[in-house]
Amino acid sequence: MKSSPIRMATGLVLVALTAFSGLPAQAAQLVRVGAAHFPPYTIRPESGADTGLLPTLVQALNESQSDYQFVLVPTSIPRRFGDLKEGRTDMAIFENPDWGWKDIPHTTVDMGLEDAEIFVAQNQEGRQQNYFADLKGKRLALYSGYHYEFANFNADPKYLTDTFNATLTYSHDSNLLMVLRGRADIALVTRSYLSDYLLRNEKVRKELLVSQRIDQIYHHYAILRPTAPLTGEAFARLLQGLRDNGKMLEIFDPYKIAVVPVPRP
User: Fold this and answer.
1) Helix (H, G, I), strand (E, B), or coil: what is residue 35?
2) Buried b (16+ CB within 10 A) or exposed e, 61-78
């Protein structure tokens, strides 16, 4: 008995569906995110640590969609520029275009996050907020590679040591200890880091005088390579999704990092 045209067509459709069902789903595009030690945002990524705000944000991005797979690539504060320019990374997060990116082709995405750099001194009798008004003659403890507004964003170590009597380290903890032990007069730390530090070291809270003066407001951006697997618009939409479902506030509010309005993409 001959098959009817309808039966034959139905059979071809079933064969086609069976064939396609055996094909793997389209793989997510890999997006390599530079991870430089910058506590509390990124903590010792070269050692394989997955602690800090950057790994938490990357996990939230991966869980919220399936088009892109974000992975962390360890780098360093000085090396991160070359890594992006030469294509070893696709993007840098928690950045600012003023921090040495001027001559490197990139796209920026406003993350709608704000932190601050503040001054911290030893809390001595009679010492008031006016102690922070003039840095002249004071010994500063600074984080090597950071761009400070009071120094016109010049991160050159020789300039900072010669001009501001600065000691440069790679540890906010070390800088705060220098202040507590009288080896430095003022340390500059991010507000988010100090908040975390005082939670871990509650007993020294009364020993520190925290400035009302702010050196700078960190308005965070993502820096994307022009040929990155995703566009700035696409990344902005992913961030907006995390804002809409409350995940951004959940991640950053405990560290006193402000989640501020941005135009919807």
Assistant:
1) strand
2) beeeeeebbbebbbbbbe
Rounded distance, CA 84 to CA 129, Å?
Answer: 41
- Domain of 38? 29-114+219-259
Total number of domains constituting the chain: 2
Question: DSSP string spanning 178-212?
Answer: HHHTTS-SEEEEEHHHHHHHHHH-GGGGGGEEEEE
DSSP 3-state of 132: helix
Q: Residue 100: pLDDT band by 50, 70, 90 thresholds? A: confident
Q: Same structural domain for residues 225 and 249?
A: yes
> What is the spatial distance between Cα 199 and Cα 224, in angstroms, rounded to a whole number?
34
Q: Say if 147 falls within a structural domain.
A: yes
For the question of whether the overall pTM of this predicted structure is more than 0.70, the answer is: yes
> What are the helix and strand counts (H, E) for the chain?
8, 9
Task: Please report the pLDDT score of residue 157 as a whole number.
Answer: 94
